Amino acid sequence: MSLEVIQYGAEERITVQRQDLSRSLAERIPYAVSKSVFDLADLARGHGWEATKTRIEDPSSTPNEKIPSLVTALKNHILAGEKLCRFFRLTSADIVNLRNNINSIQKKSSLLGSFYPCLAPEKQMKGLPLSTPEIISIEHMPDGVALVYASIRALKIKEALPTASINAKMGPSWKAYDELYGIRNVRQEAFTVVWVPNHGDIVEIRSDHLRGSNIEGTRAEIDAVIHSLKQDTSINVSGFSINVFRMIDQFYCNISEGKVVELAFGTTTRSLKHEKMRGHNDCLRSELFHVGGKSNLNQPIKPYRISISYNVEVSSGIWTSPELSIHSNSHMSDQISPSHYDILISKNMGVEDYEYVRDRIFLYI
Known about the structure:
- It contains 13 helices and 14 strands.
- By secondary structure, it is of the alpha+beta class.
């Protein structure tokens, strides 16, 4: 069943099929995060994504008038959900030229663009080669413009196998194993967004870092989009990346910045520590062993890896828990001028909670 959905005013109409919408939401949004999406839409989820997909595809469970809310949620997740981000401070001339040159960008017809905002089915991408990012949409928002690039990535997905049924078929040699896993090689459509604000001089590149993604692959995707952006707009942002390494210590030291759920650091005794909290209601800053260990040192610790969880109210009574992660390494922390350029914003529902975390970052830039 195809439905016409009006987005961002009467001029834009999107035709979606329920099956494409349910599949795309399930492929992109972690099930735990999806609770806020369905709460906002005033819809009930099923137990797990498979049951939830069935509910989306059933008009009696998800009436037609609820579909636009889910399409908006999908778009918002494409624009800002599960992103590895890099920030660029442009010169006054370059930011003006970039805003002007956006109007001359020509979008090409493509398989990926024909399904947007839904994802192209994996079976249609299976025979296609891995692709460089191509621009498939230009989203004009009240506070800026989002250039949406899409590409095909290769991923290895690790999945648990049904141990009991395998043991029954394969015999006693397999019964010694409590858990079995398989690896699936898949083609995944990935989105990278170039955000050009109407005001200010900081441009963002946000690239999908979904389940199964490799950090080096995602960084390479950002580099590829920088190249594509130069071809599309004649503006090269590569030399304007903002170094965020010093923010690791700044976020750690500011107790008003969420809850530290992961921290790696070096000490004056030349030891390396990597600590994680099991629960998101607890903060490493006040954890007893962490505090006790620090009290025995003569000098401050040197953090080089941090993850912080925030609580964000995206609507009355509806909360999300986005995470900010800056993951460098101990070798970099020993440098005279350490550098790191990527920040991961994850477990967020979409644009609103992304911008909350992004605005925290801007306080330290």
